[in-house]
Amino acid sequence: MDIFDIIGPIMIGPSSSHTAGAVRIGKVCRKILGEKPVRAEIAMAGSFARTYKGHGTDKAIIAGILGMGPGDERVRRSLEIAADEGLDYAFTEVRLPRAHPNTAVIHLVDGHGAECTVQGASVGGGNILITKLNQIDTDFSGRHDTLIIPHKDVPGTIAAVTALVADSHKNIGNFRLSRPTRGYQAVMTIEIDGTMEPDLVSKLKQLPNVINVVYLPAN
Questions:
Q1: HEC-encoded secondary structure of 31-74
Q2: Which pLDDT score, from 0 to 100, does residue 129 have?
């Protein structure tokens, strides 16, 4: 058990679920996009939808999208900072019957037109769970260094990726494969122990049938 599971994160209040976790969801989405976003569409579900203004969840998610962490003093001013930086954002409400009560769906677009959509839940104590990436099911917490690898669903691709990770003396702590349709595109999500060297990411990108590699340092 991590000490933060007991005492919670260092954060700007009032709520670890509605602020600290929300910051982390926004920050993961920003990392996945990889560039400065110019537009953000945030759909709130469940408890988030009912209380996000009073609990500052809107400010928290925008803070994360801007690259801030839960303990950043600027979280309270994130909406003003977003306006200064030219981030166009909108909040809506959405019904997600089977989702965790504290769930947000964030769609980001950068200045070159690249985009990503992330569905994440704040599950308590500032912890999060990312459950969808670009409409594909996934399952990672952002608390460990994570590789997200879209790839062609071709035999041997998983073996090649995991062998390369093993050759770099990294231990895989968690692995998930999402494959909406057999034989098309699939996504590997790999959480590793320790930190990832940049040259490993470059080597992974060069593997046959690997479409892209997104590296998310621990959040």
A1: HHHCCCEEEEEEEEEHHHHHHCCCCCHHHHHHHHHCCCCCCCHH
A2: 94
